[in-house]
Design goal:
heterodimer, A: alpha+beta, Archease, Possible Chaperone, Chain: A, domain 1, five-stranded antiparallel β-sheet, four-stranded antiparallel β-sheet, globular, B: about 475 residues, tRNA-splicing ligase RtcB, eight-stranded mixed β-sheet, 16 helices, about 35% helix
């Protein structure tokens, strides 16, 4: 799995890596599901789409993951198939459009209250793109 | 990484990181801790975060951190920072996602011996009437217009709708309503998250607890507060639920561009801020106050539910089973206050994140009965351990921005606690000590293992020795309800 838990005194933190930015976003969502221990029902499957824009890739990532937090809390939905189109060229506003496929949440161990900007910096490493995310739980 | 050599020892209980440590600091960091607690504190990044907090534009005096401090996300938990009104900044991250997370204490004259045969039933009823846990809804659902009225009025809404008594409001910080709340500045998404959560505890380290007032160290002040030795009391710890979380999320996101507009450079994006008198700053303050009022109502409805549980348990069996409010305090809040700085009275925005207001005697805004004693300062310990009722002092106004600690403070990560402890074993241990537990999640229980926290007695001894609070009473838990 291209993510690992990092130690944080009061909250939860993940490090995620992927070959490109789009994959990084998708793996961040999967990491969040793993962190919360989210188990999905087998059916019925549901689909949601949404778009977001932000001034940089980190803000876009926070917007994207915050949308997933909202779906989990308000509609008891989580997603295991994530298709994303991301445009994050430097010097321009970043945009994202997402098509999400998932189902009702059967169970989860904890809920994420918010996605923070703390220590968030998407950067390139030998693994591709990498980011640390701290979640308020 | 901050090392002990970087600190100046002021006393056994007070240390300072000088402003000269880093070029972008606008003031020093004042740390209330013993040497032993400091060694624990140096185990995470909380002091680095305190240094980062000292870079906020318009900072006045020192950033103050309490002995229960630990690493947060941007601003340390257990931290207090003052910024000059009106041109200094306000920072949502320095107040926190759970706006007006706080504690309410209610007292009774129910003696332990009389209560003991009924504690199991009381625990079950509290668990039933005070919804807790992941994804759980509240006891009251409102539509958006009603939610707006609730956010404007705070506890007055609860009084009008039959959920509160007058004394509950006078015995709450700000009388249960932050003036200047602006529900129009709260997003539709935040309202959607909050409108069905009113009267719910949440999860994590939030709880409803029945305690025994085990010992009273200041009988005169305890009498003013309404505490009776050997009798039951109730603590309620929770905040603004999804509504507050969303308000903070919205404004931390908004302020990412605000800092660029105002030419503000910060070492951590979670510290983003805007001048208080800017449109962005005013919008956040309006939304934050609205969320704070939501939290006051949340705790008020849980108090109402706790009273219902007490009535069903004890009415007809005991002569007086009523719960009377001692006080309701806030941990995560931004307030405009006046403090003495270099001999002058200065208006500042006090950011408290995981820190409790601890106003001393004679401070305006306290109820008349607390003018001689100072306000109650409530310090719940970690699960299964003691809690403390303290009183604010004149020294707190001079040394700590009228603030004190808020709890025991974590020392261990949640993942480590889950690895080292098992919820079912912990539950059996606590029940073996006579503490009734109603917990929705065993892994959540493991995360809250007492060993994951500092020793609350040591934390309290430190702030008492520093003179910023004084001891009034010690409580021990009998029933714990958590998600």
């Amino acid at each position: 799995m291209p993510f690992e838990e990092l130690s944080h005194t009061a909250d939860w933190s993940l490090r995620i890596w992927a070959a490109d930015l789009t994959q990084l976003f998708a793996e961040s969502a999967r990491g969040m599901n793993a962190l919360t221990g989210t188990k999905l029902a087998e059916s019925p499957r549901v689909q949601r789409t949404f778009s977001a824009s932000a001034e940089d890739a980190e803000s876009l990532l926070v917007s994207f993951l915050s949308e997933l937090v909202f779906f989990a809390e308000q509609e008891t939905l989580a997603f295991d198939k994530i298709e994303l189109k991301i445009d994050a060229r430097e010097g321009q506003s970043c945009t994202l459009s997402a098509t999400l496929s998932g189902a009702n949440i059967l169970s989860l161990n904890k809920s994420i209250k918010a996605v923070t900007f703390h220590n968030m910096q998407i950067h390139q490493t030998e693994r591709g793109y990498e980011v640390d995310i701290v979640f308020d739980v | 990484m901050i090392r002990i050599q970087d600190l100046i020892r002021i006393s056994d209980n007070e240390w300072e990181i000088p402003q000269s440590l880093r070029g972008d600091m606008r003031g020093p960091v004042r740390i209330f801790a013993t040497r032993k607690l400091l060694e624990q504190i140096l185990g995470d990044k909380s002091l680095e975060q305190a240094v980062n907090a000292s870079t906020l534009p318009g900072l006045v005096g020192a950033v103050v951190v309490m002995p229960d401090m630990h690493q947060g996300y941007g601003f340390p938990i257990g931290g207090v920072a003052a910024t000059r009104f009106p041109h200094g900044v306000v920072s949502p991250g320095a107040i926190g996602y759970d706006i007006n997370c706080g504690v309410r204490l209610l007292a009774s004259t129910i003696e332990m011996d009389a209560a003991l045969p009924h504690l199991d039933r009381l625990a079950t009823l509290l668990n039933q009437y005070c919804p807790s846990g992941v994804g759980v809804k509240g006891v009251v659902h409102v539509n958006v217009p009603e939610l707006d009225r609730l956010m404007r009025a705070g506890s007055r809404w609860a009084l009008k709708n039959g959920y509160a008594r007058e004394n509950d409001l006078t015995r709450t910080e700000e009388n249960g309503c932050m003036e200047g709340a602006d529900p129009a500045k709260v997003s539709a998404r935040a309202k959607t998250r909050g409108r069905e959560q009113i009267g719910s505890v949440g999860a994590g380290n939030h709880f409803v607890e029945v305690d025994l007032v085990e010992s009273i160290l200041d009988p005169e002040t305890a009498a003013v507060f309404g505490l009776h030795q050997g009798c039951l009391a109730v603590q309620i710890h929770c905040g603004s639920r999804g509504l507050g979380h969303q308000v903070c999320t919205d404004y931390v996101q908004d302020f990412q561009s605000a800092v660029k507009r105002y030419g503000i450079e910060l070492p951590d994006r979670e510290l983003v801020c805007a001048p208080m008198d800017s449109p962005e700053g005013q919008a956040y303050l309006g939304a934050m106050r609205a969320a704070a009022n939501f939290a006051f109502v949340n705790r008020q409805l849980l108090a109402f539910s706790a009273r219902r549980a007490f009535e069903e348990t004890f009415a007809g069996k005991l002569k007086n089973w009523h719960l009377i409010q001692v006080y309701d305090i806030c941990h995560n809040m931004g307030k405009i206050e006046t403090h003495a700085v270099d001999g002058k009275q200065v208006k500042v925005c006090i950011h408290r994140k995981g820190a409790t207001r601890a106003f001393g005697p004679g401070i305006p805004g306290l109820p008349p009965e607390f003018q001689q004693t100072g306000q109650p300062v409530l310090v719940p310990g970690s699960m299964g351990t003691a809690s403390w009722v303290l009183a604010g002092t004149e020294t707190s106004m001079l040394r700590s921005w009228g603030s004190s600690c808020h709890g025991a403070g974590r020392t261990m990560s949640r993942s480590q606690a889950k690895h080292d402890f098992r919820g079912d074993v912990l539950r059996r241990e606590l029940e073996g000590r006579g503490i009734k537990i109603r917990a929705g999640s065993m892994s959540g229980l493991a995360e809250e293992a007492p060993e994951a926290y500092k020793d609350v007695d040591s934390v309290v001894e430190t702030v008492v020795a520093a003179g910023i609070v004084r001891k009034v009473a010690r409580l021990r838990p009998l029933v714990v309800v958590k998600g």
